[in-house]
Amino acid sequence: MRNFDLSPLYRATVGFDQIADIMDRVLTNDVSRDSYPPYNIEKTAEDAWQISIAVAGFSEDELAVEVKENTLHITAKKVGDVGARTYLHRGIATRAFERRFHLAQHVHVTGAAHKDGMLHIDLTREIPDALKPRRIEIAAAKAVEGASIEA
Length: 151
Fold this sequence. Notes:
Layout: H1 7-12, H2 17-27, E1 39-45, E2 48-54, E3 63-68, E4 71-76, E5 97-102, E6 107-115, E7 118-125
């Protein structure tokens, strides 16, 4: 249950939609969706991360990784006739899933690999040159010839 109504924030501000959306997502208590499949987020460098998702039982053809509007979508759908087998115990969940990660501005997916039942997705932050800090050279002041400063 949410305790805060963010609609006044939408009415009273312009250009802060991302902040309101982030607060709305954080305050939403939809915990059941976040339990499957398990995943790790690892910081691999100053501006790089790797998301590792346990996808045991899925092949590369059954997995899809897409980026739409700063959101990383990972989906899996089991292909084939699983019902034809008779299991005495079935502990490996191969149910379809969709997992979403909201990416910060300038964070891009650089690659994905499926190995040993794990899906690894590499992310990096690539700040455009226009937004990077740049050093401005300070020129030495030239003496003005023939000019005087009056008090």
